[in-house]
Amino acid sequence: MKLAADWLTAPGTHAVMTTLLAGGHGAWFVGGCVRNALLGTPVQDIDITTDATPARVIALAQAAGIRAVPTGIDHGTVTLVADHAPYEVTTLRRDLATDGRRATVAFTDRLDLDAARRDFTMNALYADAQGAVIDPTGEGLADLAERRLRFIGVPRDRIAEDYLRILRFFRFHAWYADPEGGIDAEGLAACAALSDGIAQLSRERIGAEMRKLLTAPDPAPALAAMAQSGVLAKTLPGADPRLLPILIAFEDDGPGWLRRLAALGGDDLADHLRLSNADRAHLEILRAGMASTTGPAALAYAHGAAAAWDIVLLRAAQFETAPDPAVKRRIATGASAVFPVKAADLMPDLQGAALGAALKALETRWIASGFTLTRDDLLAAPR
């Protein structure tokens, strides 16, 4: 089997592979780029593995005029930048010791040993410079063809090497597994049995995985399995995925991961996932909006059209009723509305706190009118 992908013959790809091969070393594409090329889905990153040591990779790159960045040199990874594109080049490895978060590795020249330390069979596929696919586990191609997500070897052993693989199991199931095929029972049981290990993971790593999971086209079945296995409670205490399938059925603008996170609910989500300040603020707006009765136009005026639409969808999921088709027009009205009264209109009669209170009262009246009251209407009204 051979890959057919544009990136395979791109100038940067060709330069990196030629540099490694001409230096007397083996070089293979590995992981997601091979998997996605076989599935015919977009490839985001091109990862390459080689039997050259990191120091040798750097030396060969520099001699070829390719920029080399030692991004993870302790674990064998050097990023080569060719034709303005980054390529992660990692030396073939085998694990010497693991503690559930990180591994101590030794370099090797064997693809089978490198494959054995990876997580899932469909991620342990390699391809040479011409695109010929290599399946060291003997199971990856068949599992990928069946869209069957399985750990390599014994699931409990793979999870004990890195507890993040519990969350990756559900994320990859949402993205790549056959939705009609069900979740691998042995893998699910191992995730449940070792779910206490999630507590060892950093909040940043958990947050990154949950974001990727929630941006899948339909993560609802995977999150339901997380809940049933007890993994969701260990990841996001208090979260409940029951609203998620209803929300997804109403979405017409693609996945909104923070909107879906708001639908899950739970305790201290922003802290558990170490959200950025911007994401934290947006999530707070969505959760407050779910509990309020503020209309769509007023929401859009206060928070913008995107947040208002998120809240409309979340409320629709709560009441299991599709949004009114006219609601987008009301949102557009609110988002474009500009309060017509300025502070100068009330000065010098009002100053300081009294001025602020009067402006707020007028704005509240204007919003309640559906943004129809004019400046003259507002200024003429008794205050």
Detailed description of the structure:
The mean pLDDT is about 95. Among the domains are: about 1-145, Beta Polymerase, domain 2 (2-Layer Sandwich); about 340-380, no CATH class. The protein starts with 10 loop residues before the first helix and ends with a helix. Strands 3-4-5-2-1-8-9 form a seven-stranded mixed beta sheet. Strands 6-7 form a two-stranded antiparallel sheet. Helix 13 (about 255-265) crosses helix 15 (about 275-290), helix 15 (about 275-290) packs across helix 17 and helix 17 packs antiparallel against helix 18 (about 325-335). The protein is about 50% helix and about 10% strand. The protein is elongated. It is an alpha+beta fold and about 375 residues long.
Compact description:
With 383 residues, the chain is α+β, with helices and mostly antiparallel strands. Helix content is 49%, strand content 11%.
CATH architecture of the domain at 1-146: 2-Layer Sandwich
For this structure, the CATH topology of the domain at 1-146 is Beta Polymerase, domain 2
H/E topology pattern? HEHEHEEEEEHEEHHHHHHHHHHHHHHHH
Number of helical regions: 20
Shape: elongated
The proportion of residues in beta strands is 5-15%
- Write out the strand line-up for the largest beta sheet, numbering strands in chain order: 3-4-5-2-1-8-9
